[in-house]
Amino acid sequence: MGSSGNTLKILSKRCLLRLSSGSHCVHHGKSFNEGSHTSQKWRFRSLPSPHKLSSFKGSHPSRSFSTSSSSSKVGFLGWYLRKLESEPLITKSVTTSIIFAAADFTSQMITSESSGYDSIRTLRMAGYGLLLLGPSQHLWFNLLSKSLPKRDMLTTFKKMFMGQAVYGPVSTTVFFSYNAALQRESGEEIVARLKRDLLPTLINGAMFWPICDFATYKFVPVHLQSLMNSSCAYIWTIYLTYMASLKKASIN
Fold it and tell me: Could you tell me the CA-to-CA distances from 79 to 71, 83, 85, 137, 184 in Å, in that order?
C-alpha cells in the first residue's frame, strides 16, 4: 500500500507537470501567434491600399495638370504667345506689318481731306513692316539681349543710346528710301528727300522714343520687346507715314 501510494503520488505529480507544461506551451504559442498576427495586421494596415496608392500617386500629376492648365493662356493671347515661341520671326514680322498698315490707315483718315483713301500707300507700309522692320526688330532686340543681358539702369541707358544712335537712324533712312523708291523716285530725289526729312524726323523721334525704349528695355521680356516697340510705333508711324507722303523734295 505504501509503495502503491507513492507510485500514485509520483504519477499524479507527473501528470500535473505535463499539464502545466502543455498549458504553458499553448499559452506561449497563442501569444506568439497573436503577436505575429498583430504585427502582420499592423504592417498590413500601415501600408496603403492599392486604390489609395493609385489615387495618391495620381493626385500630384492631376493637381499639377490642373494648375498648369489653369495658368496656361487661352484664346487669342495664348495662341499668339505660342506663335511667338514657335515662330518668332514670322509672328513679329506679321504683327509689325499689321500695325504699320493700321497706322497708315489712321494717318490717312486724319490728314486726307479730298484726295481719298490710298490703298497702295497702305500696302507699301504693310510691306515695309513685314519685310524690313519686323525682321530687323527681331534681330536687333535679340542682339541687345545677348550683348547687354542685364536690366539695371546703366545697361538700360546703354540700350537706349544704341537705339537712338544706330538703329533709329538706319531704320528711318531705310524707310524713307524704300517708300520713295516704290513711288519711282530717282536716286537724286531720294537723296534730296533724305536731306530734307531725315534730320527733322530723327529730332522728333528723340523726343518720343526714349520713354518707349526705357519701358521696353527695362520691363518687357525679350520675346515681347518687338511687340512693345511696334505698339509704340503705331503712334510714331502715323507721323512717319505722313512725312513719307510729302511731295518730292527739290533737287536744287
Answer: 14, 6, 10, 21, 40
| For range 109-121, the mean pLDDT | 82
Q: Which amino acid is at 7?
A: T
Report the half-sphere exposure of 247 (CA within 13 A, side-chain side): 2
Identify the CA nearest to 172 among candidates 193, 142, 151.
193
pLDDT at 17: 62
Residues 143, 217 contacting (CB under 8 angstroms): no
Between CA 224 and CA 227, with CA 225 as vertex, the angle to 5 degrees is: 65
| Rounded CA separation 128/119 (Å) | 14
**Region at 138 (left for phi over 0; alpha for psi -120 to 50; beta for the rest):** alpha
Which pLDDT band, with edges at 50, 70 and 90, does 171 fall under? very high
Q: Is the pLDDT of residue 15 over 90?
A: no
Q: Copy the grid coordinates of residue 179.
A: 517708300
pLDDT at 18 over 80: no
C-alpha 212/C-alpha 99 separation (Å) is 16
Higher pLDDT, 98 or 237: 98
DSSP state of 245: T
| DSSP states along 165-193 | IIIHHHHHHHHHHHHHHHTT--HHHHHHH
